[in-house]
């Protein structure tokens, strides 16, 4: 009897599963994990500014992953990381770990890792010399945070694989990016420019992930704008505008669950409130709140366990164990010449617009800066540009209806761009054979951009260089005539592709990858394509796919570029833009035919994909991890003044403090220790807690992953073992009235190497 019951149960369960699969095109899984690196002492990656050293957190960085698989077939993995760019050595080591765990299920062929291009994350995690000079060499802690977090986000997505579907939508977003090199864009043929309404791409492409049981579980979108809302002087770790948009969308979904009707009116509403800040407080009067707050004085610093900050984290995974957490990623695409500083570029001294052709003020670049919509407040600019992307993504998410259907597939190849033969088709029908060049950077590279100007007497648009800097260059490595001719009209400042001491200065072997989900094709490129370069690549691939004669693609084909993916090799301009030798052209490493090389190789991948033919893997990139050197001073020890403890309050809130919601600021200073001792991964350095009246417990409502809370760390003197943590909370309009306090978590290192975790809290105060 029991055997018959089990047989019936198995049969019914199988039928139900078959029914589910019959309605599901794919298996889908999403994951997210903290990749916030060292929040102290480490130079930030992006602006190449030696003085831009991390000293706190604006909000945390994450790796967000989706996996799409045929029920019993191929699968693809896409990881979006809140980092300046993907790193070749990080990608190689993540793949090594995945192969050790899953065998050949996940490899360099079907796993793509793309960076959002924030310029406010710790550097030192790339393997080539030119990208780690300002970080004083390789920073193992930055590297480990990325490898660990990316791997864990993929594991989460793998473990969450369930029947589901993917829906795509596209729409126009106008006020979120401007062309920062418009004079170079004008070098493109007029007949080509006339095909487009704008000189930057305004289209956002969004994927909506639907779990058959839970409904919406995530969204990923691609839109082109630089991660430079935060300036070159900012020292707080931040995901910039794209990281902010992800935080807004995930928080919105947390409080507007799948059962909600995603109303049109909400899109024009304010950024959503934290769910945990909406606890009702039954207190009747301001006087009662003040009296209650008076009972809670500052808590002296005390030891805690290592997991204490994780347990108090607002967005703890334990609190949503009953359903998958919603994952929303705002990915980067062809952002090479696109700036979020949409008000334009102006001279600091005169307030007048910068020179159009060279982005200079009085012939010099140092005073020419782009202005974001929140100017002069870069934090406000970050919020506004992030909010604009969030609102557009929400609109596309709510209205998405086109379901992706068809094969899941992929192709990947390694290409040596230092000596790639490229065949160009001329207008007269004849062909011409050209080659790419070993990597080199032009003089205009050192001029920087309007998002972050360079120094000295470098200017954008310089196609000649000058004698003094040539002399400096020649001390390092003088380029030979063949190299100079190959890069013409770029005057070479750094011949990085031929510099190999103490190890390679620049990459040569790059990964090109194509991921397919039905009628969507994701082109993973290891660089920053300009607007027109990206358009040419997308159009060439789309044309190649349509000419394949494959009946599967009788409808619309969607092609997106995933920028800064699987490695980094700086910029890719069109041949015409390269002639202008603005920053982007000077940073196109492999010479004027770089884009043509990409187009040629991606057309080959497209062809092999649709004829179901394998591709030769190409030359393997080097693994330089064992050769890395670092000159970053380690943390030796932390101390406090005599009689004080780690976590003690140095500067408390005033007695009987009462603050208003909307814009009031509360600041507390604590005795602290170097954040490099423990990154507080999936935890927090700072916390705002609200008193629950019923049982007098403190409820976490904001942490260092909220844009309204800033954690700042400093030493009174360089290399001093003494340090302080300043926690600033700008009270949002959405905060609930009640009694609050500020708490700090940290970890201190003794002279003998052991680490002690600690916490401390401020006195209570009232918010009305």
From TrEMBL:
- One of the protein's GO biological processes: cellular response to oxidative stress
The cofactor remark states:
Binds 1 zinc ion per subunit.
Q: Which residues form the Neutral/alkaline non-lysosomal ceramidase C-terminal domain?
A: 602-767
How would you classify this enzyme at the top EC level? hydrolase
Main location as per UniProt? endoplasmic reticulum
Q: Which domain of life is it from?
A: Eukaryota
Cellular component terms per the entry's GO annotation: endoplasmic reticulum; extracellular region; Golgi apparatus; membrane
As cofactor, the record names: Zn(2+)
The residue range of the signal peptide is 1-24
Keyword Chaperone present in the record's keywords: the answer is no
What does the record give as the reaction this protein catalyses?
A: an N-acylsphing-4-enine + H2O = sphing-4-enine + a fatty acid
- UniProt-annotated catalytic positions: 339 (nucleophile)
Homology family: Belongs to the neutral ceramidase family.
Could you tell me what this protein is called? Neutral ceramidase
What lineage does the source organism belong to? Eukaryota, Viridiplantae, Streptophyta, Embryophyta, Tracheophyta
């Amino acid at each position: 009897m029991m055997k018959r019951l089990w047989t019936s149960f198995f049969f019914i369960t199988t039928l139900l599963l078959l029914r589910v699969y019959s309605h599901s095109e794919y298996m889908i899984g999403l994951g997210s994990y903290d990749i916030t690196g060292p929040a102290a002492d480490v130079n930030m990656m992006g602006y190449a500014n030696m003085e831009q050293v991390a000293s706190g957190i604006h909000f945390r960085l994450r790796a967000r992953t989706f996996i799409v698989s045929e029920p019993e077939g191929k699968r693809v993995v896409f990881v979006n990381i809140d980092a300046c760019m993907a790193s070749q050595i990080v990608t190689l080591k993540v793949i090594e770990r995945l192969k050790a765990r899953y065998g050949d299920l996940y490899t360099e062929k079907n796993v793509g890792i793309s960076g959002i291009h924030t310029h406010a994350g710790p550097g030192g995690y790339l393997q080539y010399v030119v990208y780690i000079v300002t970080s004083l060499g390789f920073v193992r802690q930055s590297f480990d945070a990325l490898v660990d977090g990316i791997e864990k986000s993929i594991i989460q997505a793998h473990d969450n694989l369930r029947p589901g579907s993917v829906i795509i939508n596209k729409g126009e977003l106008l006020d979120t990016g401007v062309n920062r090199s418009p004079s170079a864009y004008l070098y493109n043929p007029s007949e080509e420019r006339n095909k487009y309404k704008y000189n930057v791409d305004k289209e956002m492409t969004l994927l909506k992930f639907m779990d058959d049981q839970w409904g919406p579980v995530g969204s990923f979108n691609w839109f082109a704008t630089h991660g430079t809302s935060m300036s070159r002087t900012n020292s707080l770790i931040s995901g910039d505008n794209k990281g902010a948009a992800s935080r807004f969308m995930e928080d919105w979904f947390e409080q507007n669950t799948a059962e909600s009707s995603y109303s049109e009116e909400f899109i024009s509403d304010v950024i959503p409130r934290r769910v945990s800040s909406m606890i009702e407080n039954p207190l009747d009067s301001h006087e009662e709140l003040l009296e209650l707050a008076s009972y809670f004085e500052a808590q002296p610093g005390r030891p805690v366990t290592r997991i204490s900050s994780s347990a108090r984290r607002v967005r703890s995974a334990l609190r949503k164990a009953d359903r998958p957490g919603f994952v929303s990623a705002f990915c980067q695409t062809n952002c090479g010449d696109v700036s979020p500083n949409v008000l334009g570029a102006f001279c600091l001294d005169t307030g007048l617009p910068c020179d159009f052709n060279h982005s200079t003020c009085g012939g010099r670049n140092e005073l020419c800066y782009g202005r974001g919509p929140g100017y002069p407040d870069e934090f406000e600019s970050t919020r506004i540009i992030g909010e604009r992307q969030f609102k557009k993504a929400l609109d596309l998410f709510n209205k998405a209806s086109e379901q992706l259907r068809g094969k899941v597939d992929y192709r990947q190849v390694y290409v040596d761009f230092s000596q790639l033969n490229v065949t160009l088709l001329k207008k007269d029908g004849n062909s011409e054979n050209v080659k790419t060049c070993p990597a080199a950077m032009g003089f205009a590279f050192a001029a920087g951009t309007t998002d972050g100007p360079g120094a000295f007497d470098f200017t954008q648009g310089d196609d000649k260089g000058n004698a003094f800097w040539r002399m400096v260059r020649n001390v390092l490595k003088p380029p030979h005539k063949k190299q100079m001719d190959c890069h013409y009209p770029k005057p070479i400042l750094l011949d990085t592709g031929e510099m190999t001491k103490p190890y390679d200065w620049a990459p040569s072997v790059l990964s090109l990858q194509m991921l397919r989900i039905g009628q969507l094709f994701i082109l993973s490129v290891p660089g920053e394509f300009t607007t027109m370069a990206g358009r040419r690549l997308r159009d060439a691939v789309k044309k190649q796919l349509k000419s394949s004669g494959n009946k599967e693609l009788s409808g619309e084909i969607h092609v997106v570029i995933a920028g800064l993916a699987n490695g980094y090799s700086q910029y890719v301009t069109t041949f015409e833009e390269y002639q202008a030798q603005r920053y982007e052209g000077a940073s196109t490493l492999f010479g004027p035919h770089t884009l043509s090389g990409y187009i040629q190789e991606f057309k080959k991948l497209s062809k092999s994909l649709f004829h179901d033919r394998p591709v030769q893997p190409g030359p393997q990139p080097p693994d330089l991890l064992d050769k890395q050197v670092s000159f970053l001073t380690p943390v030796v020890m932390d101390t406090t003044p005599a009689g004080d403890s780690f976590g003690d309050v140095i500067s408390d809130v005033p007695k009987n403090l009462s603050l208003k919601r909307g814009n009031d600021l509360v600041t507390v200073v604590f005795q602290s220790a170097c954040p490099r001792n423990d990154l507080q991964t999936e935890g927090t350095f700072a916390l705002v807690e609200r008193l629950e009246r019923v049982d007098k417990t403190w409820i976490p409502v904001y942490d260092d992953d909220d844009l309204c809370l800033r954690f700042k760390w400093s030493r009174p003197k360089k290399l001093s073992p003494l340090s302080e943590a300043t926690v600033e909370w700008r009270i949002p309009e959405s905060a609930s009235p009640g009694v609050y306090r500020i708490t700090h978590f940290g970890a201190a290192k003794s002279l003998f190497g052991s680490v002690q975790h600690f916490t401390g809290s401020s006195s209570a105060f009232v918010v009305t």
